[in-house]
Design a protein that fits this description.
- The structure is a single chain.
- By secondary structure, the chain is of the alpha/beta class.
- Helices cover 29% and strands 9% of the residues.
- The chain has a domain at 6-74 and 160-239: HUPs (Rossmann fold, 3-Layer(aba) Sandwich), CATH 3.40.50.620.
- It contains 10 helices and 8 strands.
- The strands form 2 sheets. Strands 3-2-1-6-7 form a 5-stranded parallel beta sheet. The protein has a 3-stranded antiparallel beta sheet with strand order 5-4-8, with no helix packed on it.
- The structure holds iron/sulfur cluster.
Length: 349
């Protein structure tokens, strides 16, 4: 295999990619030419503080940190003049509508427990209905004659935000650094390749995929090479004084678990209030496009975040608890953040 022209870390600023960044500075993983952080403009303050601290260490090691952005995800999502980039809101459809077609004529498919049809060739899925989300038809429900779905309309918006606000600007920077010409940085000089370091750990091996493949990027997963899990990374960071590395995810990401919402509410009330205000603003969809035929919510209960049952500990949150001191101290509900190449907040992008 030919040597890459550049080695660049996709830095989400969460546990795994911070581990890789620091390993590049202490010689464990030599040869890194830079790190790229895609800023959605809506990360918690803690993440930006962490990034500033990390940048100093990277710079001291001669590794530049590049911050890139495709805009402010929060502002864009509720700007009627802005093109709609779908955030995976939890959707409650209008009574009587089908959870899979929502009156759009587009029907989903993934994870529909039964009775769903497959997408036709070339058909775009419009909704993803999590397994189990469709309630069995009963006294207060009916069955959609078209797709056999229950009319209790529980759905989830498609996730495009990770691609649009992270992968796209990172690849633009990749092309620029490989020598593509300004101002649009579209064409990479022939044969030039970047080795992109991605922080998937061994517990995330299922996230390795070939999606977003482009000719000028060769993906590499150093934590898999090192056999390191997320907990290994947390221990490694703690031993070096980086144990408080925060998850990186947008303040109002619908994939937050209850523990994350509680953490915001109890320790960062201004950020929680921001998420509550955003939740109110997206009830009918938000940015440009047809108003949502139903209602959108940030919390999985599909009630306004301000009154959502975030104090209830889910079975998953209990299940994730362990005697491990790092977990016990942090009471991690959903440990996931949003990684550019496989958003850890839910299914891979
Ligand atoms: S953290 Fe959530 S809202 Fe933000 S880009 Fe990732 S999936 Fe989208």
């Amino acid at each position: 295999m030919t040597r890459p022209d550049l080695r660049l870390l996709s830095l989400g600023a969460g546990v795994q990619s911070t581990t890789l960044a620091l390993m590049a500075t202490d010689g464990t993983l030599p040869g890194l030419d830079g790190a790229i952080f895609a800023d959605t403009g809506w990360e918690p303050r803690k993440v930006y503080e962490h990034l500033a601290r990390l940048e100093k260490v990277l710079n001291a090691a001669g590794i530049p940190l590049y911050r890139v952005s495709a805009g402010n995800l929060r502002a864009d999502s509720i700007d009627p003049a802005h093109r709609y980039a779908s955030v995976p809101y939890f959707v409650l459809g209008p009574t009587g509508s089908c959870p899979r077609c929502q009156g759009t004529g587009h029907i989903t498919l993934e994870a529909v427990p039964d009775g769903g049809r497959e997408l036709l060739p070339g058909e775009e899925p419009m909704w993803t209905v999590p397994a189990g989300a469709i309630e069995p038809a009963g006294a207060d429900t009916a069955v959609c004659p078209a797709c056999k779905g229950s009319t209790k309309a529980l759905g989830m918006g498609r996730r495009q935000c990770t691609h649009e606000y992270k992968v796209v600007p990172i690849n633009r920077k990749n092309r620029e650094l490989l020598g593509a010409a300004a101002p649009d940085f579209r064409r990479v000089p022939k044969g030039r390749v970047v080795e992109q370091w991605i922080g998937f750990s061994t517990d995330e091996i299922g996230r390795v995929n070939d999606k977003d493949r482009v000719s000028y990027v060769r993906k590499r997963y150093p934590l898999l090479d090192l056999g390191m899990s997320r907990k290994d990374c947390q221990r490694w960071l703690t031993e070096r004084g980086w144990g408080d590395t925060a998850k990186s995810a947008c303040i109002g990401c619908p994939f937050h678990g209850n523990a994350q919402w509680r953490e915001l509410r109890d320790n960062h009330p201004d950020e929680f209030a921001d998420a509550v205000a955003f939740d109110e603003a997206i009830r009918k969809g938000g940015a440009r496009g047809l108003p949502l035929d139903g209602e959108a919510f940030l919390h999985r209960s599909r009630v306004p975040l301000a009154v959502a049952p975030i104090d209830r500990v889910t079975r998953k949150e209990w299940g994730d608890r362990s005697p491990d001191i790092f977990d016990a101290l942090a009471e991690q509900g959903d440990p996931d953040g949003c990684s550019p190449y496989g958003c850890r907040s839910g299914a891979a992008a």
